Amino acid sequence: MGSFQERACGSAILFGLIVGSILLALSFYIVEPNYVGVDYNHVTESIDEVKLYTSGRHFLGIGHEMVLFSTTQQTRDLGVLTGRSKDGLSVQFEVSYQFMYDQDIQTLVRLYKDYEKEHLPWFDFFAASSLRNTLAEFTAFEVIQKRDELQVIMTSDLSTLMENEGIQITALQLLNTELPLRFMDAIEQTILAEQNVEKAEFEREKARITGDTLRLQSTISASNLVVTATAQATSTIVEAEASAAAIMVQLTAEKSAYKALYDSAQEKFKEVQRIQAVAADSGFKLTWGGTTIGGTIPCGDDGQAVTAVNTIASELESLAGITDVTVTANSATSPYQWDVTFNDAGVGNADMMTSDTGDVAISEIAQGFSSAHLLAYIWTESLAETDAGGVQINFKKQVEVA
Q1: Does pTM top 0.70 for this prediction?
Q2: Predicted confidence band of residue 181 (pLDDT cuts 50, 70, 90)
Q3: What residue spans of 221-335 are helical by DSSP H?
Q4: If we measure between CA atoms, which residue out of 165, 151, 173 comes closest to residue 122?
Q5: Can you tell me whether residue 144 is helix, strand or coil?
Q6: pLDDT digits over 234-245, tens only?
Q7: In 138-294, at which residue ranges do the beta strands (DSSP E only) sit?
Q8: CB atoms within 10 A of CB 47
Q9: What was the pLDDT predicted at 135?
Q10: How far does Cα 164 stand from its chain's mean position?
Q11: If you count DSSP H runs as helices and E runs as strands, how many of each does the chain have, helices first?
Q12: Who contacts 55 (Cβ-Cβ below 8 Å, separation ≥6)?
């Protein structure tokens, strides 16, 4: 009998030791490197708001749980979001961001109390709302034109919001933005117009280089070729500058219209009319919109033709309906030519000027008009044009759409 009781007592002690060992093992928790933890007690349903546990093995006791937070940078990919621009267009954009937890026990405890273990989905929800609000401060054109600035402001706004949640935004990437196709076409049209202006400037600079090269060659050449080569170089520069100036007038007007597409649907191209007159002591008068100017335009000699630029401008600007014209002299000798550009936004397709003498011819060089719909161009791929002189000019391939 005593032997049985001894065995039973021994078994109970052994069982107690095994259970105690298991419970003791379950009372220890490991915090891995690059993590910190806070102690949550399931028995009392409370969390330790004093001690922050770093990497290592820690004794918490039965019924406890170690809630872990990473100490390294975390990345969240929000995927493709949809928002509205300031002017009401739908914009799809793709964003990811990086953050780090504040290593403060009170902050981490508050996170657990507010969200338990589901704080990351809430962070993504808050981030998406903040990013949409920031996007709504930009027009659709600015979303494309000022993408870097938009990303910086998105990062700043999201950082301000998430600081209240106890995390630090370390970086944000605006990976992609997509606008409605028609608006994208209009934006590409604006960019194409800017490139056309740049191309004209490049061609003008190339012409200058060519002229300077010819001038240098003439200096090195024999003395009997100097005069001829210099004249040739000078002629090349004058002709090239005259051609480039004509291109610049037209392209500048186009560029202004395209750039204003997102500001005003009523943008108008500028009217350009050319006056051509032979030298005459009597000069001539102009009529526009049924009204004749008060003064006479002098063109008796080359000197008067130069001063006629200002006279034409002032006389036309004195007429009702015209406040701003630009007059450009194209020829310094008879027959003289002046190009008159009507800069007023309300002029549109201006009436043709007329003259009181048959020695003056007036033609329309660029027609002004107003339209709510402009031709759109898609900027689809880079294209390099190389001319015979070996000067490469990069610009985008132009595709017209209705």
Answers
A1: no
A2: low
A3: 223-259, 302-317
A4: 165
A5: helix
A6: 767 767 787 777
A7: 167-178, 271-277, 280-284, 286-288, 291-292
A8: 17
A9: 93
A10: 31
A11: 8, 21
A12: 31, 32, 33, 34, 35, 36
